[in-house]
Amino acid sequence: MTIDWAAFTPWSALAGGVLIGLAAALFLLVNGRIAGISGIVGGLLTPSRGDVAWRVAFVAGMVGAPLVWLAVTSLPAIRIEAGYPMLIAAGLIVGISTRYGAGCTSGHGVCGISRLSPRSLVATVAFMATGFGTVYVLRHMIGG
Amino acid sequence: MLLTLVSALVVGLIFGTGLLVSGMANPEKVLGFLDLAGHWDPSLALVMVGAIATAFVAFRLASRRERTFLGDPLRVPTRNDIDGRLLLGALGFGIGWGMAGFCPGPALVALGAGELKAMVFVVAMLAGMGLFELIERARQA
């Protein structure tokens, strides 16, 4: 392992992290809910009365964030290396797995660890491990 | 009711902005973090530190309350069991995350930034979530 100091952005990473944590905090204390993106989006597929509008509002905020950003300044770089077949396969896997695993990076990784949930701790270690493993296989065994 | 909707919208905006500021909305950056064997970019570890340190305070506060600031019940998960579904789901999620560098939140933000590839990912993700519902419904029938 070599650390890529040129790519390392500690301050924006911390600042962005604090904003994400603040969002999770507000959602908990004002809306009484966990800010878990896969759960919020997944719940839209089985709509029940009174349970749709807040989900739509949250997703609209997420999707709208770059538009608000653009009103102030230009967007940071978003580079997506993966081709379309890979994106489709990845999307399908992320969709089905996050529902079975009851969470993703936000619900388990941020909120779950913040409330010291054993389930979320195990889940986060598990998805980090296969995340690292998958990139290793794709970049250094197949692509290397 | 209206206040909770406004709050959800504002929280979504703050969350999305955090993902943009932190670099997590950029799959290249995420894959740079997941590539331990290459030129490793540790930034995302600090995103987690910042987010968890901030949210931790809120969960401490919430543990002493039964209702939200608006008077609604606090819905905090209560399950503590670690089962095969949780484990397999999390393991699978990591694979999908490592394939494209997208997890659900950043994909929504990149979609909002007008990235066609993010839209394709989000549509596939919704299909995967729909598949989960179909399988679960078939199992219960």
Structural summary, described in words:
The complex is a heterodimer of chains A (144) and B (141). Helices cover 69% and strands 1% of the residues of chain A. Chain A has 144 residues and is mostly helical. Chain A has one domain. In chain A, helix 5 crosses helix 6. Chain A is globular. The two termini of chain A are 15 Å apart. The relative contact order of chain A is 0.09. With 141 residues, chain B is mainly alpha-helical. Chain B has one domain. Chain B is built from 6 helices and 1 strand, in the order H-H-E-H-H-H-H. In chain B, helix 1 crosses helix 5. Chain B starts with a helix and ends with a helix. The chains are: A mainly alpha (144), B mainly alpha (141). Chains A and B meet through strand 1, helix 1, helix 2, helix 3 and helix 4 of A and helix 1, helix 2, strand 1, helix 3 and helix 4 of B.
